[in-house]
Design brief:
Elements lengths: L1 H10 L2 H16 L8 H6 L38 H11 L6 H13 L6 H13 L4 E5 L5 H9 L5 E6 L2 H13 L7 E5 L2 H4 L8 E6 L6 H11 E10 L15 H15 L3 E6 L5 E6 L1
Parallel strand pairs: 1-2, 1-4, 2-3, 4-5
Antiparallel strand pairs: 5-7, 6-7
Helix pairs in contact: 5-8, 6-7
């Protein structure tokens, strides 16, 4: 019986040839030179770029490795769709500003000092409320837009200390705070260079530090903020995506490189739990362990 099977195998080789032709063609299609390494090599290939938020089909890989492709940390994202851009715009304007915030935003436009977006402001208010902030430091007062958002999330007795090198901005912010009904005892405005003021502030005494000043000095601001924050306190840095340049490694101007390196440093910091929020111009946030 065994010899008969052997003769049958030798005399009728077509099934083997058909299998080999199929196997070789599959390997060639995958650009694999050695058939025996095909499965291993294909597992190292990047998986298809499925739509964001959608699970890859179980058998969507190459026929040799169907069901075997694993997610890669080099996962290739598809281009941003029109729908996704609309969703981001919808999220950014999900909340509306009251009259006080609108007035402060108009004043910021008059001064040309810029202001956080509605999405960024609402995130700051939520973060302040989340840590039940009693003591907050803001680096970069502007005309008071971000300060009003922060005060809206702080405890009723909380005090906002806000620092800016431009005294004219601070006077405008003070007027906006008073117009919004914020008691003067709840705000402390300090005119001066932040790197001269921050070292004089107490260690571990603050719940939240918001950085929205000279981006080239942002890393130094964060260093001071980590000293000033209590355990469980939070630091937030505006412009973390710097006009959508940070994500592009080809962009090498000073500000872009500074913000990119700051994100990497905070991401790998042992004492921080970090998240980068794609709102406004990017909001880099971290909780101090």
């Amino acid at each position: 019986m065994d010899s008969q099977r052997l003769r049958t195998t030798v005399v009728s080789p077509e099934p083997i040839r058909a299998y080999l032709r199929s196997h070789i063609s599959l390997c060639q299609a995958a650009s694999v030179k050695h058939p025996r390494r095909g499965r291993q090599d294909l597992q190292r290939r990047e998986p298809p770029a499925w739509r964001i938020g959608e699970a890859a089909p179980r058998n969507a890989g190459h026929p040799i490795t169907s069901g075997c492709c694993q997610p890669s940390r080099h996962f290739r994202r598809p281009p941003i769709s029109t729908e996704r851009a609309q969703s981001w715009a919808y999220s950014e304007d999900f909340l509306t500003e009251d009259d006080s915030l609108l007035a402060a935003r108009r004043r910021a436009a008059e001064f040309g000092c810029g202001a956080v977006s509605v999405g960024t402001g609402s995130a700051l208010r939520m973060l302040a409320a989340g840590v039940q902030a009693e003591a907050v430091v803001e680096i970069g007062t502007g005309a008071g837009v971000s300060g009003l958002w922060l005060l809206g999330g702080m405890r009723p007795t909380g005090v906002l200390t806000t620092i800016d090198v431009e005294s004219a901005y601070q006077q405008a912010a003070r007027n906006e705070f008073l117009a919004a009904g914020i008691p003067s005892a709840r705000t402390r405005l300090i005119a001066g260079r932040a790197l001269d003021v921050l070292p004089r502030m107490a260690d571990g005494a603050y719940d939240l530090v918001f950085v929205d000043a000279d981006p080239l000095e942002a890393a130094e601001y964060v260093e001071q903020a980590l000293r000033m924050l209590r355990r469980g306190g939070l630091v937030a840095v505006a412009h973390a995506l710097w006009h959508d340049k940070v994500a592009d490694p080809a962009r090498r101007d000073d500000v872009t490189v500074t913000m990119r390196e700051l994100g990497r440093t905070m991401r790998s910091h042992d004492e921080l739990i970090t998240a980068l929020l794609p709102i406004g111009d990017g909001l880099l946030t971290a909780v101090k362990k």
